[in-house]
Design a protein that fits this description.
The chain is α/β, with parallel strands linked by helices and 269 residues long. The protein has a single domain, classed as Metallo-dependent phosphatases (Purple Acid Phosphatase, chain A, domain 2). The chain is built from 10 helices and 12 strands. The strands form 3 sheets. A 6-stranded mixed β-sheet has the order 4-5-8-9-11-10, covered by helices on one side. Helix 1 crosses helix 10. The radius of gyration is 18 Å and the shape is globular. The chain binds fe (ii) ion. The site of fe (ii) ion has 7 residues, from loops. It comes from Macrococcus equipercicus. InterPro entries: Calcineurin-like_PHP, Metallo-depent_PP-like, Pantetheine_PDE, Phosphoesterase_putative.
Length: 269
């Protein structure tokens, strides 16, 4: 069985192409590679309803299951309507959303997923907690601080989300786990330090709260998004996959089809 993985499409940020272009091009590539299940690791757009419409459109076009976890951008709202907990509840009730709804493939395999959240553990130690909580550095602000409000500190959110994943995995018995998060759950996928600004901004890339999950459970694949890398790494029997399409300015070409073909990763189980 072939499972397609992609992340961080950010189709609404592309001024040249439409929603339908993205549905068409991604669906064609998924079909071409004989994929029968598609996983999307978040950051479809900056609008939760639009992001979900995209998942539904893919599902209809492909006539297969398409599962996703929301990324931080999918939670974004303007200041006057900011209610992140309500958006989270919206996502949780969707049948294609993996949060608190693991997907059993067969007796051997299951997909468990969550947005995950950052806990500042990847930031340089010279920044204190208050500075990281404020998210301001060298004249700019980490945008989640403006458009997301969990009503709780990031560290508490990260811990709670990781515990939800642990509970989901425990329900899966002896199955091998394909774990999908939007946030990075392994330090090797952060921006290498020292870096002019990412010494600070790595705080908002990932979390250490999954370390224990990797040690204890049969995670075979770990899918992540958020950092806009396209990178795979195998370590201690776990294949870590970051299959981000990213912003058009980060592409190597101006060709959506080529970039999608390059970003889409296919797992064979
Ligand atoms: Fe992203």
């Amino acid at each position: 069985m072939k499972i397609g993985v992609i992340s961080d499409l950010h189709f609404d940020r592309d001024t040249k192409r439409t929603f339908d272009d993205y549905v068409k091009v991604l669906s064609a590539e998924v079909s071409r590679r004989d994929v029968t299940l598609l996983l999307v690791a978040g950051d479809m757009s900056n609008d939760y309803e639009l992001s979900y419409r995209f998942i539904v459109a893919l599902k209809h076009q492909l006539n297969m299951d398409v599962l996703f976890v929301p990324g931080n951008h999918d939670y974004w709202q303007s200041e006057d309507e900011l209610n992140t907990l309500a958006v989270h509840d919206y996502f949780k009730q969707l049948p294609e959303c993996l949060i608190e709804r693991p997907y059993i493939i067969n007796d051997q395999w299951a997909v468990v997923g969550h947005s995950g959240w950052y806990n500042y553990s990847y930031a340089d130690t010279r920044f204190d907690e208050a500075k990281l909580a404020a998210g301001k550095f060298k004249g700019s602000t980490w945008q989640d601080k403006l458009y997301i409000d969990w009503k709780a500190p990031d560290k508490i959110v990260s811990r709670a989300f990781a515990e939800t994943v642990r509970r989901d995995i425990e329900q899966m018995g002896d199955r091998h786990i394909i774990l999908m998060t939007h946030m990075v759950t392994d330090k090797k996928f952060t921006v290498p330090l020292p870096h002019r600004i990412f010494d600070f901004y790595n705080a908002y890339i990932g979390t250490s709260d999954f370390d224990d999950i990797y040690n204890k459970y049969a995670v075979k694949y770990s899918i992540m998004g958020h950092v806009h890398f396209r990178k795979t790494l195998v370590e201690r029997g776990i294949t870590y996959i970051c299959a981000c399409l990213g912003y058009t300015r980060q592409w190597r070409s101006d060709d959506l089809q080529q970039e999608v073909a390059n970003a889409l990763y296919v797992i064979e189980i």
